[in-house]
């Protein structure tokens, strides 16, 4: 496929501006390697890993590929000091931070030789991230799976607004699973796309097969953003979702929702395969995903469609 160069490919040293999101219970070293080997940027999802488990995944990733890869780290993680120490020890070059204040760790991470990208859901936090000195931002719209912003701003509205507000490289996330969606995001001002749901349903995803099968069965309207009083999260509608929805309609407070959520609920669903009472985090774009493919094939399909749609777009203008 033809070469492509822009701010994102230059920043990460990759072939295509396609980033695989670091998703809890889905993004182990095998998925990161597969995406990076295919020319994108694979990310290990540290949010579901103890520090020493993360170290093992990083070491296996380094042994399996010489292509760039990164790690996604939620900054509110209880063992954040230990987790970031592992990244420094293992000389990780790229880190995507989320769920916290980028000002706290960005300078230290960059002193360790890391390129730092922060995930935001609003223009306000994009500006704060730029002020904190991050190298790039991911602007994630309301359509995205997993934990989401309270503003409920859609990707189509968020990307141009963030592009007008900051001057650093910008990745779009939320609702991107195809080449045409990637092109649309880049026309709106993004320099590339971060893709989660599509890679969650890949062969190399560490998610349980039941969850992958559930993703490809998902239709329009089968997901919803809930737990807005606690931490907003987009879920597939199952018995656990319905219990949360009922509690919210009855006026449940954050403490009641936390008790209902309990511990290990997302692991139970996405990693252990309980499709009834587990927490099933996925984006609205799951409705477009109809088959489970190797991650490298997904990268290839996305880029080929991007080029084809780009050609059509240029003919129209």
What is the CATH architecture annotation of the largest domain? Alpha-Beta Barrel
Compressed to H and E, one letter per element, the order equals HEHEHEHEHEHEEHEHEHHEEHHHH
Order of strands in the sheet with the most strands? 1-9-8-6-5-4-3-2
Please indicate the percent range of residues in DSSP E strands (runs of 2 or more): 5-15%
Average pLDDT taken over every residue:
96
Give a quick account of the main beta sheet: strands, pairing sense, barrel closure.
8 strands, parallel
Uncertain ranges: none
Tell me, what's the shape? globular
Structural class: alpha/beta
Report the CATH superfamily of the largest domain: Aldolase class I
Descriptive account of the structure:
The strands form two sheets. An eight-stranded parallel sheet has the order 1-9-8-6-5-4-3-2. A three-stranded antiparallel sheet has the order 7-11-10, with helices on one face. The mean pLDDT is 96. With 317 residues, the protein is an alpha/beta fold. The relative contact order is 0.14. 43% of the residues lie in helices and 15% in strands. The radius of gyration is 18 Å and the shape is globular. β3, α4 and β4 form a beta-alpha-beta unit. It folds into two domains: 231 residues, Aldolase class I (TIM Barrel, Alpha-Beta Barrel), CATH 3.20.20.70; 67 residues, no CATH class.
Secondary-structure blueprint:
Blueprint: H1 7-12, E1 18-20, H2 29-37, E2 42-45, H3 51-64, E3 69-74, H4 80-89, E4 94-98, H5 106-111, E5 115-120, H6 123-131, E6 136-140, E7 146-147, H7 155-165, E8 170-173, H8 179-187, E9 192-195, H9 197-200, H10 209-217, E10 223-226, E11 233-236, H11 239-249, H12 254-261, H13 265-271, H14 295-316
Parallel strand pairs: 1-9, 2-3, 3-4, 4-5, 5-6, 6-8, 8-9
Antiparallel strand pairs: 7-11, 10-11
Helix pairs in contact: 2-3, 3-4, 8-14, 11-12
